[in-house]
Amino acid sequence: MLKDLFALAEREGIAIEWWDFKPPLEAVYWATPGLPPVIGLANSLATTPLAYFRSVLAEELGHFYTTAANALPVTFFHYRDRLTVSRAEYRARKWAAIYLIPERKLYRALRKGIREIWELAEWFGVTEEIMALRLNLLLGEKHLQIC
User: Fold this and answer.
1) Which SS3 state, helix, strand or coil, does residue 27 take?
2) What's the total number of domains in the chain?
3) Residue 59 is part of which domain span?
4) What are phi and psi of 38, to 5 degrees?
5) pLDDT digits (tens, 9 = 90+) for 88-128
């Protein structure tokens, strides 16, 4: 399933580069007008659990689909700057959760009796944080439909 994410990046013309980032930086998305977008991945990701790697790469792809500008780590001088970056990160993470965990497949897993977040995360090959976000999104969507 990781190769699907790489294939998606290739279809979208996103270059993926491997770098020696200093922790805690693991990945970045960079887009400059007139140049192909780039996702930079830390070399250390190659040795992390597959679920973690998939979740990180999907979130970076999420920036391509949801962020109009770069969302690189910055020094904050104003609170509004921090809010802007936080919103961009949330949108990218939300895209990743929805992409990696389609609603139909999530319902199928739940019908099979898979209920714990850690079990669902293993089933979908994602982190527990991405799984929890997807469940919250699903509950929020259903709540909004009921109201």
Assistant:
1) strand
2) 1
3) 2-146
4) -130, 140
5) 899 999 999 999 999 999 999 999 999 999 999 999 999 99
